[in-house]
């Protein structure tokens, strides 16, 4: 029965099961944990990380990594903030396009260096992570963006309630983010061009023989990751309003953690956007739970979080390896059986 | 109008012991060229730029023919960057280096090398904990009095019937914040006046908007009866205030702590952060420059008991630092407590 379900679907079901288990665990430990409020907290916070994790997934699928996303989020949040501060009448669509375009520009720099200059992505993006952050420090000139200078439509947007189920509020920021994730997921599963990301990631030589321009695919992945980080920067600005040069710091690791926990193979070629989205929710849930769980002190929380992520990934790797092996054995047996039958 | 609450009773008592011999104040004369560097914890934070403005003001006032350079590391490279810059300063034969230390005692060897090369090392905002490699520390306010100010603000917010308070700090190992929180705990424990203020938790937002925001909400969820979030950091206080505003919790939970008027004005006016305190970073830069220039040009010797006139700010005396053995400080003070009555004027 299990063998009939596609491994990706199985993985998502497993993730959902883990989410439920962790929620139940914290519910027994923390008074009043399971409530509409919990949903509101996590959905609002995950709205930003989901976008970054989606972009990160596209890059990881091609056997690369993008460590510059945190700096891009910070830069775009600041740049979009100073743009709207100086031009308060700018339409929302223009500001959104500006954010996406800035992100795309940063992604293009990464992509060109990785795909065409052939520098390993971990080196390129480690360098651009520092470079983009330093550019922000220079660009900001020590000023910070404050909520007062932002138009109401921007700061109200993330918290606007689209619809509510009891205490659970589906806010605009979360809904917009989920929409982007769904569109990306559909594109990744249905579009031929998007399948090239998987092809390049699982076997670059074979992809090349099949006539896929691997360098271009990698470039596109980085540009899209930049666009996602740009959109996340826009959301960051809308949600937090007060932007300093440290905005988005640490997002690179959290996005990688979300993707990997969500079952995206760090060696490329397999994984899904929905998985990364669930991974982001899982990481956020663990963090929220651990913060409120009296057993774990402030100093140990990061360590516990790291251990849990490691455990999640290890379990996932072992299970999927067993599954693949079982599948292969079964296929072999069937092949043998059919030969015997003849 | 800016109303200043001078909350320096403890500071005044301490001063009383050391400054009995009130010598004639030394007037710092300008005109001598001295190359100086102002080194903040890192670039890109408004308060450090304000300190630079103050230093530039003093630089122009004293007609220093040398250069005043404002340079600092990027945020993610703060510790290593500071050590590197101090090491470089030692080879540049600077007259004075003004440092807001973020590298703990790790900075000492390079600061001592700078001193050996003839550079006066004056710390401000955050000192070198051991005092090794430092000529003088310009202390913004007495660290003990920050505890009193925070306890007072908490008390006025929970009211006569008492209530729960939680602290949202910067990083778990931030030396200034930890000293201030400890000072507040001491005040709360020792003075019966504060018996109603119940400190339930201390959490850390890493001085990042998103982490601080989420921690503030977690506090509210964890402690349903929470009345005050005290954030002794400019990043934490505004993130907490925004979080309370976004979740419509302002009437229930008040935010207070140390904040910048320009960043806090809307939250103070709408009641989310009814009161908060801070010292003036422009003044801190200005005073630091005067002291460093005096030392660099030989007008000040840096001995305990020496009094000097720092331009528009008046007279200050060098004294033993009560918090650090073998270290010397100049205490700036006082605090300004901001409420809806004075925050608008200060935010301009």
Q: What does the largest sheet of chain A look like?
A: 2 strands, antiparallel
Overall domain count of chain B: 2
Query: What class would the helix/strand composition of chain B place it in?
Result: alpha/beta
The helix fraction of chain B, in percent, is 25-40%
Average of the residue pLDDT scores of chain A: 90
As a whole number of angstroms, the C-alpha radius of gyration of chain B is 20 Å
Mind telling me which CATH architecture of chain A this is?
Orthogonal Bundle
Any idea what the CATH superfamily of the largest domain in chain B is called? Response regulator
| Low confidence ranges of chain B | 1-21
* CATH topology-level fold name of chain A: ABC transporter involved in vitamin B12 uptake, BtuC
DSSP strand tally of chain B: 15
- Helix-residue proportion of chain A: over 70%
Give the strand content of chain A: under 5%
**CATH fold annotation of the largest domain in chain B:** Rossmann fold
Spell the H/E element sequence of chain B: HEEHEHEHEEHEHEHEHEHEHEEEEH
Tell me the distance between the termini of chain A.
Answer: 27 Å
Q: What gross morphology of chain A would you assign?
A: globular
What's the level 1 CATH class of chain A? Mainly Alpha
